[in-house]
Amino acid sequence: MIAVRDHLDQFGDATIAVVTFADPARLAAYRDHLDVPFPIVADLDRRLYRLVGAERGTTRQVWSLGTVRMYARLLRQGRRLRRPTEDIHQLGADAVIGRDGAVRYLSLPASPDSRPPISELIEALD
Questions:
Q1: Is-above-0.85 flag for pTM?
Q2: pLDDT digits (tens, 9 = 90+) for 26-56
Q3: How many domains in the chain?
Q4: Which of 89, 93, 21 is nearest to 57 (CA)?
Q5: CATH code of the domain covering residue 49
């Protein structure tokens, strides 16, 4: 999400949205905290997660070496970590959907730190 925000100019006129299973009452604060200009919508029953095949990860996947390194880097940068309020085992997905509704790109990361390069998302745009 942050990487997309930081390269927003490269997405042209694409519509960008974030889907989460967070409580809808928290979405505005979540969007403000991440400082993203695109909509964040709730999928409370995780229908879309199941539809694209986003699974729940094991503890080993969620706390992979890469994830631990990512949090260590954030701490060194002065970020404060907060106690999770959501299901930390739910793995995400990154998708590009064409104007015709067809899936042009789908990435199902095996851990929270293994997101696809922004260049792959941009290449998949119509």
A1: no
A2: 899 888 888 899 899 999 999 999 999 999 9
A3: 1
A4: 89
A5: 3.40.30
